[in-house]
Amino acid sequence: MMHKSFKLLILSVLLGSLMTSHHAVAQTFGYVDSEFLLNKHPDYKLVQDELEALKDEWKKEAQNLDQAIKEMRSSLKAEEVLLTEEMYQERLEAIKEKEKEAVAFNNRVFGLNGQYYQKQMELMQPLQSIIFDAIDKVCKRFRLAVLFDKAAGPTMIYTDPRHDYSEFVLQELGIEN
């Protein structure tokens, strides 16, 4: 009895491993190029244009602050001989404050979590959601187990074009290549 149940246990383990290895072989892998998909989407150009306009506006503000600092320095240098030590120090302190203001502005706008980054995330999120929904549908349609993003970095050493599903995602989005 014990011997028979041991054989059944071994048989079930072997069958289970065969089923698992067969299932593993049947899993399909593919990749997309999210950068390619973004560049093909018509809304991406609009987002890029809006971000570029904002960046240009904020750059101009930063340049104005830098120009004001240069003018203050130039003025101080020109009038240096006419100023008392106290007046000179006051102007120097005003320049330092303006420099701090410029640095604070650049950090607030272009810093790690600055306004530019926040606006970029705000504008890109809806577009990324649309693309990820299309990717999800393609993965389900082709029963893909894993889908890599070619644009996400150096994690893919080799890609076979047969496994590139970017065109199917474009079709799902209704975009012709």
Helix-strand layout with pairing:
Elements: H1 2-26, E1 28-32, H2 34-40, H3 42-79, H4 85-110, H5 115-141, E2 144-149, H6 166-173
> Helix and strand string, N-terminal first?
HEHHHHEH
> What does the average pLDDT come to?
83
Structural domains: how many: 1
The number of helical runs is 6
Strand content bin: 5-15%
Q: Write down the Rg.
A: 30 Å
Which regions have little confidence, pLDDT < 50, spanning 5+ residues? 1-25
The CA-CA distance between the termini, in Å, is 67 Å
Secondary structure class reads mainly alpha
Helix content: over 70%
How many strands in all? 2
What is the overall shape? rod-shaped
The strands making up the biggest β-sheet line up spatially as 1-2
Major sheet characteristics? 2 strands, parallel
Protein name: Outer membrane protein
Organism: Mongoliibacter ruber
Family: Belongs to the Skp family.
Keywords: Coiled coil, Signal
Description:
Residues 1-26 form the signal peptide. Belongs to the Skp family. It comes from Mongoliibacter ruber. It is built from six helices and two strands; from the N terminus they run αβααααβα. The longest helix has 38 residues, at 42-79. Strands 1-2 form a two-stranded parallel sheet. It has one domain. It has helices at 2-26, 34-40, 42-79, 85-110, 115-141, 166-173; strands at residues 28-32, 144-149. With 177 residues, the chain is mostly helical.
